[in-house]
Design brief:
The complex is a heterodimer of chains A (652) and B (251). Chain A has 652 residues and is mostly helical. Chain A folds into four domains: 51 residues; 124 residues; 139 residues, no CATH class; 194 residues, MetI-like fold, CATH 1.10.3720.10. In chain A, a hairpin with a 7-residue loop joins β1 and β2. In chain A, α14 packs antiparallel against α15. In chain B, a hairpin with an 8-residue loop joins β1 and β2. In chain B, the strands form two sheets. A six-stranded mixed beta sheet of chain B has the order 6-7-8-3-9-10, with helices on both faces. Chain B has 251 residues and is of the alpha/beta class. The chains are: A mainly alpha (652), B alpha/beta (251). The interface between A and B is medium-sized, with 19 and 26 residues.
Amino acid sequence: MSEKTMKENPMRRKKSRFFGLNKQDIIKYYFGGNAAAAIIALVLICWFLLSQAFFFFPNYRNSLQLYRESGQEYVDFSDDRLQAQVKISSLMSQVSGYELRERIGVDADSYAIYVNFRGLLAKKVKFELKDYARAREKEGIMEFLGEEEQNQIRQSIEAAKQSLENAAKTAAAAIEFSDIEDKSLQYAPEKLEFFRQAAVEGVILGETPESVKAIQAAVDTKKQKLLGELPVFVKLAEAQDVIQAPQAAFRDFITQQRKYALETKARGVAFKSAAEEKASLDERAKSATSEEEKKRLAIKSVRYLTQEPDYAKLNAPLYESKAQQAALAVDLLVATEKSVSMLPDPSELTSVGAKKRLGDIKKGFEEVEEIFADKGNEASTWDHTKHYSMSEAVVGFFFGTKWVTNSSWQDFYGVVPLFLGSFGAALVAVILAVPFAVGGAIYVNRLSSPMEQQVIKPVIEFIQAIPSVVLAFFGVIVLGSFLFKYGQNPALAWIPGFPIEGKLTMLNAGVLLALMAVPTIFTLAEDALNNVPKSYQEASLALGATKLQTVLKVILPSCFSGVIAAVLLGFGRIVGETMVVLLVMGGRIAIPTSFTDPAHSMTGILAQEIGEVDKGSLHWGALFMVGLVLFTVSLSLNWLAQTILRRLAKHK
Amino acid sequence: MIEIDDVSFSYDRGKTNTLKNISLDILEKQVTSFIGPSGCGKSTLLRCLNRMNDLVDTSCITNGEIRIMGHDIHGKDVDAIELRKQVGMVFQKYNPFPKSIYDNVAYGLRIQGIKKKDQLDQAVEKSLRGAALWDEVKDRLKDSALGLSGGQQQRLCIARTIAVQPRVILMDEPCSALDPIATAKVEELITELRQEFTIVIVTHSMQQASRVSDHTAFFYLGELIEYGPTDRVFQNPEQKRTEDYISGRFG
């Protein structure tokens, strides 16, 4: 080597370079770039959410301030009381309705069942019906025709009728009560033949047959008789008269005041938008380059009137009405109290539904008294000049119980009903999913044979592959009806929320979400179980423990935090789920009182409303705030689970 | 006490026998050690004695029977759970549960349905004293067992085993994960325990076998080569292979 240096340096850098980078560098930066992109995406999403939601609270405050200044708030104090009272009176009519239905019995639904039957039948024989109708079209021109042709037409009509009758009879024989979609109709099996007959007659005649009319008439007579004579109904009717008597006066009063408030609001809104427009013109004028342009903008700006409306003057009629309002409210409350005391005793009622509603009235009345006291107080001290603080707006969003949008009156953005809907359905889901998933994981991991493992694990993990919209379909079409049908069973009435009163409920969504949470919880819990050292099991068995004792007393406790983390991640997974809750939960925006109520969700409202809202509007900001709340909830659930898992790993 | 009578054992439904026609009698309240090179079947035989091999689905005894106190342990009237209460086991790697020291020792009694506090307290103290651990841990019974040193953890496992009052204690290389000082303590303990229990110990250490055991069995490739009083086996082995192994010529 010392004598002769090699001509070519074997250690020389290879030349193939691209922008000064060799192959290894490019691969390294590619992977690094991917990781960086993920982090940048997360930061951008956070920034996007925050920047869009940032102006929500000031804008919401302004909106609520105008709500106060325009007197709408004052009117709502009255309206809230009226609504609470109307709720009681509508409960009373429900008591009456349920009781009447119970007393009359199955016949009460005869007409509805007949209509359903005939509808089903008409669908089945639609071709024969069409033929018959076509044949009869010629009846109109018969008088212009000769004897022979008339006979021909008569024959063809007769033939069409005959074939319709035959087809209808065959089709009717196949119809059962269970084909009727409205399952709330009760039916008596012995009446099945009657309805088939009536449906056939109805289809051919094209009108309600006499037999059904007769039943209907009998039901009407019975109804009149019951309402007029039976003490329960008399009492109920009297109570209803008393409670409804003062409603009209109060309603008229509110309607009148609404007009004032809406006019004031219109002026307020006009002033605000004019002021905004003016401000932006002034801004542009300031930064304009040419003198001419400045002048032009200044002239334009002057055109906008910026006289603030005189709220004190506009609200004068409201202030003047305070005494009248208080007097009317007293009338209303006194009538309600009197009416409630006139109600029949629950023992006089026979219907379960009626009894339940009677109980609701008693409970509801206490609430009404509270609402009257609170709102009455607020109305009498109402002052339109009072400043609406920022904290009130923040509380109004996070703890507001009303989510009202696109209203001609006033929009409210309170997240509570949506939050409860999301959280409630997820909670139902977790409660249902945990026993299945954790139990399944224990079985597969510790108790099953290898053969069973090979079957069970892929099957459970396969559930994850079902698209959520397909699950939602299943929920709407199958599960909803199933839960509704069996939720009526009186044996279940002891569970709060039962009997179920609709198909689209939080329970229905919860069951489907549970199905979606099971694979997540199962897989993670099984991992956690797998991480328990085998030596624990050996030690326990060697001490004479059974397999079950070993699982429950040694293995499960030593991976408990892993299982908790699995449950939390499952929870996080379903809180963010959209399709199922949007389609299956019923979309009612109100605070759910039990887990069988319909509800709306945070994810659902975003999916439903974000597409049709003006960019930058208050509603837009509110939706972004909801998104932010959702994001925070999911993030903290994930963080919590990760922390638990990390601590677990450290512990090991 | 334990009669092993012409036993063959297979891990793969009888295709190949891991143990081949082994017969030996283990005497009551004596220490018997199983020695031999890795894979010779000594641990397998030990695990047959309390049917821990049942956990492997494909395993089975293909020939012969094992009698403990005169009863066939694979007999129809024998429950593996009850068997293991009579025949306890200490493992190679100390494996206390991630529970407190107290709960570890009380575990065996609790799963038998004993709930009375004073009864448990007594048994825990007695067992810990029996395992020569009481003085070291009596002030921290509620602390996690995983905080003890390796030797202490292994003695805790022994305490846990003797708490259920077995007749026989099986030890599968109980000192292989311990340092020399801890090993010495455990060996001392084994000599103490032989007064009350029949002990079978599997070990890789010839010195240990000669120190603690009364009888020694030498296994090679699934066969029992030689069995006899420890002194004789070590000083006057009858078989050439035993001598080669003991003197370290292979293994």
